[in-house]
Amino acid sequence: MIIESLHIENFRNYTKEDLIFSNSLNFFIGRNASGKTNLIEAIGYFVLYRSFRGISDPELINWNSNFFYLRLELMNLHESTYEVGVEKINQQYRKKIKKNGKKVNKLSDIISDIIGVFFIPDDLEYVESTSKRRNFFDYLFSLIDVEYLNALVEFQKCLKQRNELLKRILEKKSTTNELDFWDNKIIELSLLIMKKREQYIQIYNNFFHKRAKEISNQNDEIFVKLEQNDLGTFKKMFLENRYKDIYAGTTTIGIHRDKFFFLDKDNKDIGSFFSQGQKRTVALSLKLAQYDLLLENFKIKPILFIDDVIRELDQYRRKYFLDLLLDCGQAFFTTPNFEEDMRMFKELKGNNCKIFEIENGNVKNEF
Length: 367
Known about the structure:
Layout: E1 2-11, E2 14-20, E3 25-29, H1 36-48, H2 57-60, E4 67-76, E5 78-89, E6 92-99, E7 102-103, E8 116-119, H3 125-128, H4 130-144, H5 146-170, H6 179-215, E9 223-227, H7 234-240, H8 242-248, E10 259-263, H9 276-298, E11 303-307, H10 315-327, E12 331-335, H11 338-341, E13 353-359, E14 362-366
Parallel strand pairs: 3-12, 3-13, 8-11, 11-12
Antiparallel strand pairs: 1-2, 1-4, 4-5, 5-6, 6-7, 9-10, 13-14
Helix pairs in contact: 4-5, 5-6, 5-8, 6-9
């Protein structure tokens, strides 16, 4: 899987650029706020079909335009072209995605076409936020299992409908019996998702534990634990909770509230006692285990997107990460000071690198 080229129009601080990439390592260099991360964001848009920074589509449009357009050429067994455009029309924003010139109606049809893993400074938030961890695993499991993805999408629709109905019941605008349909749907979908979460977290944990131990130089043994309701009693518990939900005006138990914890070798929750080094070990291990799981599932090396994270690592973790780069397929990397960082990257010099020098939203040089 190789991203061959990218065409950009009116994306962030770029007006128009055409880039051809190395099939190995691609470095974007330049001062802070020059537009390095914006380029990774544009390429990575075809992995998530949204910004990896959590920014809305309208905010990605260049200030001097009412649209952005991206086109990417991918080689994976055969060449494919992907296009995405967002345009403001009559005060509304419309998004269109195409593959090989044909409109894509369901994102699930292409969501695993381009497999990538993002390493960004905000990865530390996965250590500190339960909801972000849950979203991380939902996305990962959806990539490797379309049934999981479809069930999750349907669950979220049903949950929204149920919560709206709960509020209407509280306001005496609907009756309790109307919950029966949505309760049965949610229970059915929840049981499927819960079973699959248990299955995949066990597989993922093997990769995570191995990576965490290696990154910490054998010092840390850390596992991920999934805390969810018991499969055998979930239906009974969910139905018994109905009146509590009505008074709360929302669904108070279910898969949308499941938690993922970090445990040590003695099964103690160590999330609140992490040192800064342990937090970086966990954040890096989460993404490396994601890489491992995707590689095992698709038998293709995921593309790496690395946004200025190496400097934050200590010497041992930095060496471990550089070894990964030597063994990976294609990678896109940002750095503000390439000459200084090349001391770290000296082993990568002969590894088919391509360097793009960025200045104020323009690719100034390629070498």
